[in-house]
Amino acid sequence: MSIDIIFRIAGVGLITAVINNILEKSEKKEIATLVTLAGLVIVLLMVIEMIGGLFDTLRAIFRLY
Amino acid sequence: MDIFKYIAIGFIGMVMVVTVKNIKPEYSIYIALATGVIILISLSETIMEAVNTFSQIADKSGLSTGVFNAILRIIGIGYITEYSASLCEDNDCSSIAKKIQFAGKVAIFVMAMPILSGIIDIVGGLL
Description:
Chain A is mainly α. In chain A, 86% of the residues lie in helices and 0% in strands. Chain A starts with a helix and ends with a helix. By secondary structure, chain B is mostly helical. In chain B, helix 1 runs antiparallel to helix 2 (25-60), helix 2 packs antiparallel against helix 3 and helix 3 (65-90) runs antiparallel to helix 4.
Protein backbone atom coordinates (compact mmCIF):
# COMPACT_ATOMS: atom_id res chain seq x y z
CA MET A 1 0.00 0.00 0.00
CA SER A 2 1.94 2.95 -1.27
CA ILE A 3 1.11 6.59 -0.95
CA ASP A 4 0.68 7.24 -4.66
CA ILE A 5 -3.05 6.76 -4.17
CA ILE A 6 -3.17 10.02 -2.21
CA PHE A 7 -1.53 11.87 -5.07
CA ARG A 8 -3.82 10.18 -7.58
CA ILE A 9 -6.95 11.35 -5.72
CA ALA A 10 -5.55 14.85 -5.38
CA GLY A 11 -4.69 14.82 -9.09
CA VAL A 12 -8.24 13.83 -10.05
CA GLY A 13 -9.54 16.62 -7.86
CA LEU A 14 -7.28 19.25 -9.42
CA ILE A 15 -7.98 18.06 -12.97
CA THR A 16 -11.73 18.27 -12.42
CA ALA A 17 -11.29 21.78 -11.04
CA VAL A 18 -9.33 22.84 -14.14
CA ILE A 19 -11.81 21.23 -16.51
CA ASN A 20 -14.67 22.91 -14.67
CA ASN A 21 -13.06 26.30 -15.13
CA ILE A 22 -12.53 25.68 -18.85
CA LEU A 23 -16.09 24.49 -19.35
CA GLU A 24 -17.52 27.43 -17.41
CA LYS A 25 -15.53 29.84 -19.54
CA SER A 26 -17.04 28.30 -22.67
CA GLU A 27 -20.57 28.60 -21.20
CA LYS A 28 -21.12 24.85 -20.80
CA LYS A 29 -22.17 24.85 -17.16
CA GLU A 30 -24.17 21.61 -17.26
CA ILE A 31 -21.23 19.59 -18.64
CA ALA A 32 -19.09 21.05 -15.84
CA THR A 33 -21.40 19.61 -13.20
CA LEU A 34 -21.31 16.27 -15.02
CA VAL A 35 -17.51 16.31 -14.99
CA THR A 36 -17.52 17.00 -11.25
CA LEU A 37 -19.87 14.09 -10.68
CA ALA A 38 -17.76 11.79 -12.86
CA GLY A 39 -14.62 12.73 -10.93
CA LEU A 40 -16.36 12.12 -7.61
CA VAL A 41 -17.60 8.71 -8.74
CA ILE A 42 -14.16 7.61 -9.94
CA VAL A 43 -12.50 8.65 -6.69
CA LEU A 44 -15.31 7.09 -4.66
CA LEU A 45 -14.80 3.74 -6.37
CA MET A 46 -11.04 3.85 -5.68
CA VAL A 47 -11.54 4.74 -2.02
CA ILE A 48 -14.28 2.18 -1.45
CA GLU A 49 -12.01 -0.56 -2.81
CA MET A 50 -9.31 0.53 -0.33
CA ILE A 51 -11.75 0.61 2.59
CA GLY A 52 -12.95 -2.88 1.65
CA GLY A 53 -9.38 -4.11 1.81
CA LEU A 54 -8.83 -2.40 5.13
CA PHE A 55 -11.95 -3.90 6.72
CA ASP A 56 -10.99 -7.35 5.42
CA THR A 57 -7.54 -7.13 7.01
CA LEU A 58 -9.01 -5.84 10.28
CA ARG A 59 -11.55 -8.65 10.21
CA ALA A 60 -8.75 -11.15 9.69
CA ILE A 61 -6.67 -9.68 12.50
CA PHE A 62 -9.39 -9.35 15.14
CA ARG A 63 -11.31 -12.48 14.02
CA LEU A 64 -14.43 -10.37 13.65
CA TYR A 65 -16.43 -12.92 11.68
CA MET B 1 8.44 -0.39 13.72
CA ASP B 2 9.68 2.92 12.36
CA ILE B 3 7.20 5.48 13.55
CA PHE B 4 8.65 8.13 11.23
CA LYS B 5 7.21 6.37 8.16
CA TYR B 6 3.68 6.70 9.52
CA ILE B 7 4.25 10.27 10.61
CA ALA B 8 5.49 11.10 7.11
CA ILE B 9 2.44 9.47 5.48
CA GLY B 10 0.19 11.40 7.83
CA PHE B 11 1.86 14.70 7.03
CA ILE B 12 1.70 14.06 3.28
CA GLY B 13 -1.99 13.29 3.59
CA MET B 14 -2.58 16.41 5.67
CA VAL B 15 -0.75 18.61 3.16
CA MET B 16 -2.77 17.14 0.30
CA VAL B 17 -6.04 17.63 2.21
CA VAL B 18 -5.24 21.28 2.81
CA THR B 19 -4.17 21.95 -0.76
CA VAL B 20 -7.23 20.32 -2.24
CA LYS B 21 -9.59 21.79 0.34
CA ASN B 22 -9.77 25.29 -1.12
CA ILE B 23 -9.76 24.08 -4.74
CA LYS B 24 -12.25 21.20 -4.51
CA PRO B 25 -13.57 20.67 -0.94
CA GLU B 26 -15.32 17.37 -1.76
CA TYR B 27 -12.01 15.60 -2.46
CA SER B 28 -10.46 16.45 0.93
CA ILE B 29 -12.70 13.81 2.53
CA TYR B 30 -11.41 11.12 0.18
CA ILE B 31 -7.77 12.04 0.79
CA ALA B 32 -8.26 11.89 4.55
CA LEU B 33 -9.91 8.49 4.18
CA ALA B 34 -7.15 7.21 1.90
CA THR B 35 -4.39 8.32 4.28
CA GLY B 36 -6.11 6.61 7.18
CA VAL B 37 -6.47 3.41 5.19
CA ILE B 38 -2.83 3.44 4.08
CA ILE B 39 -1.53 3.92 7.62
CA LEU B 40 -3.78 1.20 9.01
CA ILE B 41 -2.97 -1.35 6.32
CA SER B 42 0.77 -0.78 6.63
CA LEU B 43 0.32 -1.27 10.40
CA SER B 44 -1.62 -4.51 10.04
CA GLU B 45 1.48 -6.77 10.10
CA THR B 46 2.66 -5.43 13.45
CA ILE B 47 -0.86 -5.67 14.88
CA MET B 48 -1.04 -9.26 13.68
CA GLU B 49 2.20 -10.16 15.50
CA ALA B 50 0.98 -8.51 18.71
CA VAL B 51 -2.31 -10.38 18.53
CA ASN B 52 -0.50 -13.68 17.95
CA THR B 53 1.77 -13.20 20.96
CA PHE B 54 -1.28 -12.29 23.04
CA SER B 55 -3.09 -15.43 21.98
CA GLN B 56 -0.06 -17.55 22.92
CA ILE B 57 0.03 -15.91 26.34
CA ALA B 58 -3.70 -16.45 26.73
CA ASP B 59 -3.39 -20.13 25.81
CA LYS B 60 -0.58 -20.61 28.34
CA SER B 61 -2.50 -18.84 31.09
CA GLY B 62 -5.42 -21.23 30.63
CA LEU B 63 -7.83 -18.47 29.58
CA SER B 64 -10.64 -20.05 27.52
CA THR B 65 -10.33 -19.23 23.83
CA GLY B 66 -13.96 -18.03 23.70
CA VAL B 67 -13.30 -15.26 26.18
CA PHE B 68 -10.07 -14.26 24.47
CA ASN B 69 -11.80 -14.16 21.07
CA ALA B 70 -14.54 -11.99 22.50
CA ILE B 71 -11.99 -9.59 23.96
CA LEU B 72 -10.17 -9.47 20.64
CA ARG B 73 -13.41 -8.80 18.81
CA ILE B 74 -14.30 -6.01 21.23
CA ILE B 75 -10.94 -4.38 20.63
CA GLY B 76 -11.48 -4.67 16.88
CA ILE B 77 -14.94 -3.14 17.02
CA GLY B 78 -13.70 -0.35 19.26
CA TYR B 79 -10.90 0.36 16.86
CA ILE B 80 -13.03 0.49 13.72
CA THR B 81 -15.72 2.66 15.35
CA GLU B 82 -13.07 5.08 16.63
CA TYR B 83 -11.57 5.29 13.13
CA SER B 84 -14.84 6.10 11.40
CA ALA B 85 -16.18 8.33 14.17
CA SER B 86 -13.08 10.53 14.17
CA LEU B 87 -13.23 10.66 10.38
CA CYS B 88 -16.82 11.92 10.54
CA GLU B 89 -15.89 14.47 13.18
CA ASP B 90 -13.07 15.61 10.91
CA ASN B 91 -15.56 16.69 8.25
CA ASP B 92 -17.72 18.45 10.88
CA CYS B 93 -20.59 15.98 11.00
CA SER B 94 -20.21 15.20 14.67
CA SER B 95 -23.83 14.02 14.97
CA ILE B 96 -23.05 11.10 12.65
CA ALA B 97 -19.87 10.44 14.64
CA LYS B 98 -21.91 10.20 17.84
CA LYS B 99 -24.32 7.77 16.19
CA ILE B 100 -21.39 5.57 15.09
CA GLN B 101 -19.94 5.65 18.59
CA PHE B 102 -23.32 4.69 20.02
CA ALA B 103 -23.57 1.80 17.56
CA GLY B 104 -20.08 0.69 18.59
CA LYS B 105 -21.06 0.76 22.26
CA VAL B 106 -24.14 -1.35 21.57
CA ALA B 107 -22.09 -3.84 19.56
CA ILE B 108 -19.48 -4.10 22.31
CA PHE B 109 -22.19 -4.53 24.94
CA VAL B 110 -23.75 -7.36 22.97
CA MET B 111 -20.33 -8.90 22.45
CA ALA B 112 -19.55 -8.73 26.17
CA MET B 113 -22.67 -10.62 27.27
CA PRO B 114 -21.10 -14.12 27.13
CA ILE B 115 -18.13 -12.94 29.19
CA LEU B 116 -20.49 -11.50 31.78
CA SER B 117 -22.51 -14.69 32.03
CA GLY B 118 -19.26 -16.70 32.25
CA ILE B 119 -18.09 -14.59 35.19
CA ILE B 120 -21.44 -14.89 36.92
CA ASP B 121 -21.33 -18.68 36.56
CA ILE B 122 -17.80 -18.79 38.01
CA VAL B 123 -18.80 -16.56 40.96
CA GLY B 124 -21.94 -18.66 41.51
CA GLY B 125 -19.76 -21.77 41.55
CA LEU B 126 -17.45 -20.26 44.17
CA LEU B 127 -20.28 -19.40 46.59
